[in-house]
Amino acid sequence: MARIKYSADIIQYISIFESLTAAKVKDCIVNEQILFIVNENDMGKAIGKHGSNIKRIENMMKKRIRLVEFNDDIVQFVQNLIYPVSAKEIKEENGIVNIYCNDAKSKGILIGRDRHKINFINDIVKRHFGSAEVKVV
After folding, report:
1. What is the model's pTM?
2. Residue 48: which residues within 8 A CB-CB, separation 6 or more?
3. pLDDT tens across 34-81, in order?
4. For residue 77, which of 10, 71, 96, 124 is within the disulfide window of CB 3.0 to 4.6 Å?
């Protein structure tokens, strides 16, 4: 797996987040929002009481914050990544993670306009698990 290179801005975001929450950041991705992938069991620390840490950081950084808890199990990680959308089942076979949806609406949300959402999920999974691929079935 290739090492992830961060810009100075992202390093600053990670530093601020870790100092305010005491939760360790495994990865940070910035687009229209800031996605922090926190280490396993650090989610409670990261959120804070009644979401206080998230609100404070959103106000400081003037961007929406999204948190995902990392997991070494690729199926559980994908489940965490797609939350709050619930899948009927997530299975991993031969490096391909299949997400089976409950309904067409969930499937549409997961794929996103112009496949934007599923491509984003795929990029994140590839960053942490190498050649794995995510498909919505």
Report:
1. 0.91
2. 21, 54, 56
3. 999 999 999 999 999 999 999 999 999 999 999 999 999 999 999 999
4. 71
At which of 69, 100, 118 does a domain end?
69
Residue 3 lies in a domain: no
pLDDT category of residue 5 using cuts at 50, 70 and 90? confident
Contact (CB, 8 A) for 66 and 33? yes
Give the pair of three-digit tokens for residue 90.
């997530």
Supply the CATH number for residue 80's domain: 3.30.300.20
Cβ neighbourhood burial of 2 (10 Å; 0-12, 13-18, 19+): exposed
* 60 shares a domain with 113: no
Domain that holds residue 52: 8-69
